[in-house]
Amino acid sequence: MSFAAIVTIYAVFTAVAGVYILIVTGLNGAWMLHTNLVRPQRSGPLVSVLIPARDEETHIADCLDSLLVQTYDNYEIIVYDDDSTDGTARILARYASEHPDRLKIISGHLETGWYGKPHAMQRLSENASGAWLCFTDADTIHGKDSVSKLMGIADHFKADFVSGYVRHKIGGFGEAMVVPALYLLSMVAMPLWLIHIVKAPIVSHAIGQVMLFRTSNYVASGGYQAVKNQVSEDIRIVRLVKKHGGRAVFADLKEEISCRMYKDYKSAIKGFSKNVYDYFNKNNLILTAATIAVPLVFFIPILGSMWLPAALMAAQPYFRLSCLAIIYAWGFVALERMLPWYIPFIYPVILVNVLSTAWRAYRLFKDGKAVEWKGRMVK
């Protein structure tokens, strides 16, 4: 077989991969629309809205303001002050005095053997009274129907667990080069509509910014005690939910919940550093395979679409098809997730940032070091 034939076969492969990515992205978008059309359920069993807060003085007031005006008629709010070193405790005390019937504040110290967020979540669940537990981050902003919408989705799909994509606000170009990587899994490998159909725990996805549990299933799965030393605790715990017979749904929540995860490029890279290597299960083979696959599927076709020697020109149409399909897929994500218009044109930079961040985290892990996050070390 000639070299030209090998290049053409490879180009056909990249075209097939690009079209596959476009199809998966489109179908996931259709699923997101389907879940978005579910009607809110404004009455029902008690929901405990649980918020871990560590050094959140710039966010916690806006979060609480949005949660205190929910249309759902039966809910409580509990905030865990996780040894904050800023003005978080003062703000929480003021809100607790103003809303004693709705809001409760608890606090504590990190125990040995736990990571900070799982520990806070476990303490919150132990103090909750609801038949449903709604964990949400302190930097999220909720529409008035957010709890109602989550309960409506749980009821519609007969689910024990609901998570989803909130609206991720991007305030600058630095964040734009990192944050859209959140959507890579649902573009490349995870048909989101299968999560509530397939019982296998591996077919799971969750975003820790908001997660709704049926309390009985949460307890049966071991709660956060079972993932107390995991960095990607959101993914781990939804797998446990399914392992113990629960049904999970991943939905579109952008109309009800928003979040600006990071303030700039540096904080985005730092935030991803504590999660991305763990997301690869700290498996060097998987990370190496991804590092090889990404250029083959995403980068080389760009070069091949622009220039090839005359002897290899038969491959160029396939490279161009691959590039167009991937750009359209990113364009669909940008439109559907309300991201900046230029995201489809900087996806190579996004991918480079993800891989370089994963390798940076690997080096830290190998050297026995850790990523500092909010004054704590995460390995």
Estimate the global geometry from the Cα principal axes.
globular
Q: How many domains?
A: 2
Q: What's the CATH topology name of the largest domain?
A: Spore Coat Polysaccharide Biosynthesis Protein SpsA, Chain A
Q: Poorly predicted ranges (pLDDT <50, ≥5 residues)?
A: none
Question: Alpha-carbon distance between the termini?
Answer: 48 Å
| Main sheet characteristics | 7 strands, mixed
Total beta strand runs: 12
> Strand order within the widest sheet?
3-2-1-4-8-6-9
State the CATH superfamily name of the largest domain: Spore Coat Polysaccharide Biosynthesis Protein SpsA, Chain A
Share of β-strand residues: 5-15%
By CATH reckoning, the class of the largest domain would read: Alpha Beta
Number of helices: 14
**Helix content range:** 40-55%
Estimated structural class = alpha/beta
CATH architecture descriptor of the largest domain: Alpha-Beta Complex
Average predicted confidence as pLDDT: 91
The rounded Rg comes to 22 Å
* H and E string: HEHEHEHEEHEEHHEHHEEHHHHHEE
Explain the overall architecture.
This protein is an alpha/beta fold and 379 residues long. It has 2 domains: 3-28 and 277-378, no CATH class; 39-263, Spore Coat Polysaccharide Biosynthesis Protein SpsA, Chain A, CATH 3.90.550. It has 14 helices and 12 strands. The strands form 3 sheets. A 7-stranded mixed sheet has the order 3-2-1-4-8-6-9, with helices on both faces. A hairpin with a 2-residue loop joins strand 11 and strand 12 (376-378). Helix 12 crosses helix 13 and helix 12 (284-306) runs antiparallel to helix 14. It starts with a helix and ends with a strand. 44% of the residues are buried.
